[in-house]
Amino acid sequence: MSRVLVVGAGLTGSLCACLLRREMLSKVQITVWEKCHGAGGRMCTSTSPADPNCTADLGAHFYAELSSHGILRPLVAPVEGMAMKEEGIRNFVTPKGASSIVKHYLRESGAEVSFFRQVTHVLRKGPGWEVCVKGGQAESFDAVVLTVPVPQILQLRGDVPSLIEGSLRQKLEAVSYSSRYALGLFYKAGTQINIPWAMKYFEGNSCIRFISVDDRKRDTESPSSGPSLVVHTCVTFGLNHLEMAEGEVKTLIMAELQKILPCLPEPASVEVRRWRYSQVVNVVDGSLGQITLHLSPFLVCGGDGFTQSNFDGCIESALRVVEILKSSL
After folding, report:
1. Spatial CA neighbour of 217 closest among 87, 48, 97
2. Which of 5, 200, 203, 215 is the most exposed place for a label (fewest CB within 10 A)?
3. For residues 47 and 54, is the Cβ–Cβ distance under 8 A?
4. Is the dihedral angle over the CA atoms 316, 318, 320, 323 positive or is it negative?
């Protein structure tokens, strides 16, 4: 049985693990390592420190499966300022938070999932790979799938730099991401947020791009749990304040929010989240969903940086990675 490591517990990583389980049940033992404290990646869901039921989302066949499990529902809440880019597009919400999609795929994968595991080195050792983590022990694997953002792949040491040279390095270095901040405001049960919409996009604001009453957006309002508000900044604000202390950024966003919604009640708690790699602006040219760095032992890169920065892009990348991996193990 081949031991496969998936680095990154975001959408692409969790779906890769799930598909590997379904396609190669008796042939692989799957491990998922994530450097953060929980699953979700850029689809994370934060919880109020005072109310576990008060949450906020800070960040085809697959849609049918997720809908059948109650993880996805059609969006029915009113939205202001949203531009429809293509006719016929359907919008969905996640009643249990965006991270519930990732958690579903991880459960389905049966993988051994570990958090606070930041991979630093990937080295050839015998017939496989030795993978080192910050502050932890190295482990050996027969195949490694890297689904972290492209700049983090370029930071890996060991044998990875020698496998990314010349034109390939130039392609990976050309990948770029937008940066944003997300703010989550959590309220006590019984608090009323008197806003006529569930979500609204703001054009021309130098700080705030999007606001949602998150429980209303997901159609999960309940008198027993408090509401939550999510604020996303615009890309320009994120870029200009990327290295600023999060406490200072929170003060700036809250001040602008007060101008837009002056009657907003006082929250019980506020969480700020910096997304250095929010959305892919320029993807890897000609990668078709993945780039294989080494065939035997197998080392592959995947994620939305190799396709397109949306849900379908992550699905496409996971399918390509698993297709290649099946032929190599």
Report:
1. 97
2. 203
3. yes
4. negative
Q: Which residues pair with 294 in a beta bridge?
A: 299
Residue 264 DSSP symbol: P
Helices (H), ranges, the chain: 11-23, 61-68, 99-109, 150-154, 160-163, 166-173, 214-217, 235-240, 246-260, 311-328
Q: What tokens appear for 111 in the block?
A: 């993988």
Main-chain phi, psi angles of 98, to 5 degrees: -60, -30
Identify the band that residue 194 occupies on the pLDDT scale cut at 50, 70 and 90. Answer: very high
Integer Cα distance of 70 and 163 in angstroms: 42
Distances (CA, A) of 108 to 7, 16, 20, 101, 310: 17, 11, 10, 11, 22
C-alpha torsion sign, points 219, 220, 223, 225: negative
Six-digit token string for 155: 């930071």
Q: Which residues contact 79 (CB under 8 A, 6 or more apart)?
A: 197, 198, 199, 200, 201
Q: H helices of 174-234, where? A: 214-217
* Burial of residue 10, with CB atoms counted within 10 A of its CB: 0-12 exposed, 13-18 middle, 19 or more buried: buried
Give pLDDT tens digits for 255-297: 999 999 999 999 999 999 999 998 999 999 888 899 999 999 9
Residue 292 to residue 299: CA distance in whole angstroms: 6
Q: Is 169 helix (H, G, I), strand (E, B) or coil?
A: helix
Which pair of structure tokens corresponds to residue 217? 């957006």
**Whether the bond into 297 is cis, omega within 30 of 0:** yes
CB 305 within 8 A of CB 175: yes
Pairwise CA distance, residues 18 & 95, whole Å: 21
Q: pLDDT tens across 96-115, in order?
A: 888 889 999 999 999 999 99
pTM summary value: 0.88
- Which residue has tokens 């969480």? 271
Q: pLDDT tens digits, residue range 33-85?
A: 999 877 756 556 677 777 777 776 655 456 667 777 888 888 877 788 776 55
Distance CA 209, CA 180 (A): 10
State how far the Cα of 154 lies from the Cα of 172, in Å rounded to an integer: 8
- Alpha carbon distance 181, 222 (integer Å): 27
